[in-house]
Amino acid sequence: xxxxxxxxxxxxxxxxxxxxxxxxxxxxxxxxxxxxxxxxxxxxxxxxxxxxxxxxxxxxxxxxxxxxxxxxxxxxxxxxxxxxxxxxxxxxxxxxxxxxxxxxxxxxxxxxxxxxxxxxxxxxxxxxxxxxxxxxxxxxxxxxxxxxxxxxxxxxxxxxxxxxx
Amino acid sequence: xxxxxxxxxxxxxxxxxxxxxxxxxxxxxxxxxxxxxxxxxxxxxxxxxxxxxxxxxxxxxxxx
Lengths: 165, 64
Known about the structure:
The complex is a heterodimer.
Chain A: H1 2-13, E1 19-22, H2 24-29, E2 42-45, H3 57-65, E3 70-71, E4 74-77, E5 80-82, E6 84-86, H4 90-97, E7 100-104, E8 107-111, H5 114-124, H6 127-139, H7 144-153, H8 157-164
Parallel strand pairs in A: 2-6
Antiparallel strand pairs in A: 1-2, 3-4, 4-5, 7-8
Chain B: H1 6-23, H2 27-47
């Protein structure tokens, strides 16, 4: 996985994407017990295009040129399938902006803050997100003031109350 | 409400402690645990018709 992260870092340095961070189950695994997953979810801030359409096409093209092929909704990079999700709303934009630099062996990477992972679960709202919020509350250290700010800004306070009642 | 058998309570407590220990592992060790889980789960999922791919692990750096 280290080589996978090195490829992502290079894409960012080369300006193919503006910023990336690990999200989803692997993002959560930074803070809690390991969770079974087969994908490495990546949120990306793409380069601005004239049409303002969020398109992954330039990213996919750059990866194809490096020999990394698409497989379904993922791109296989150094043996790890990566689904890329563009930051498509204000919560994801903020999560990506505030993501933390973390080391993975000798390579630096970026991971969403645990409070944003909680907020994204609340916004997504599936049964498995609810279970993840339970585990994150149970095992991770949440900054409650920071989390309150996120919940307020993104109108998620009601859902939080409902899920944590 | 029925009380749990003390032996079962002990087992559940130990399980909870193990989860706490796992949560405190360094990230690269957690990734190894995820890949081990993938190796265990992949045959079951494939038998159910789900296409999954077990990740390639980075080689462990040689000890000096």
